[in-house]
Amino acid sequence: MDDGRTRHYASLQEAVAAVFGNGARIVQAERVFGGDINQAYRLTLADGRRVFLKANRKENAPFFAAEAAGLAAIAGTGEIGTPQVFGSGEDCGELGGAFLMMEFLEKKKPGAGFWEAFGRQLARMHQAGTEGLAPGGKFGFLEDNFIGAGRQVNTPHGSWVSFFRDCRLRPQLRQAARYLGSRERQGAERLLERLDDILEEPVRPSLLHGDLWSGNFLAGADGRAWLIDPAAYVGHAEADLAMTELFGGFPQRFYDAYREEFPVREGYPRRREVYNLYHLLNHLNLFGSAYLAAVKGIIQEFAP
Fold first, then answer.
1. 234-277 pLDDT, tens digit each
2. Is the pTM of this model over 0.90?
3. Which residues are identified as catalytic?
4. Is the distance from CB of 259 to CB of 147 less than 8 angstroms?
5. What value, to the nearest 5°, has the Cα angle with vertex 225 and ends 280 and 255?
6. How far lies 88's CA from each of 13, 62, 144, 273, in Å?
7. What is the CA radius of gyration of the chain?
């Protein structure tokens, strides 16, 4: 399976020429919405073709390497769309330092049948093989990556529960200690100790998007779902499903179609809260105390 290594170029113009031909050149660069971390541009070439570009400071080039690896892993399943990655580099001139150049996706509103198809596609992605993606274990990833602007630890483990304890909850709780009182810190330790009784090992490891909320997919011009901005790793499919429900959720027909393709085991709603504790802790560590009450509530629920 492709390990996600993408072609690296000395400059943006070199990348454009290598991918689109020696005569290709950029005639327009327009800022577009691209999230909170990177600057994003729609580039128009002289022949009218459009390209999507992310730019950031040179020291943040690892963000783009991690994104390319995640997109390659998802694309490798053959089950759901991802933008093609054309290349990366560390000199995009006036637009910034490091860059990631990708296919530009035209967006449209989800049409009839979109959500049902999306649910089935995600379920099939979760059932795809994960060989070679977590060397030395069943769960984890090729290397550490990022969840938003936060580093995400992906050290391979043979057990899903131990992976989620050691690589997901424990690092975030360690960072969040400054927000938590002694009662919450003690409760968090009890939660970690009881995790084997709360979570369960999956029937099979699944490749996860890792940060699957409404801002990280789009309906393409072809009417299909396309995944963007992954924080990919191999884990329990329920963790991806839980994230879709954290900030408002998707339409019920998405979940019904998903479950028809890949049934969810009994007890999922309770496990969902623990999976989403990871994302709430990450938001607490990145954005501050607005997420503290939700974090405390879950810790108290499972470790009163």
1. 999 999 999 999 998 999 999 999 999 999 999 999 999 999 99
2. yes
3. 211
4. no
5. 60
6. 11, 11, 19, 37
7. 20
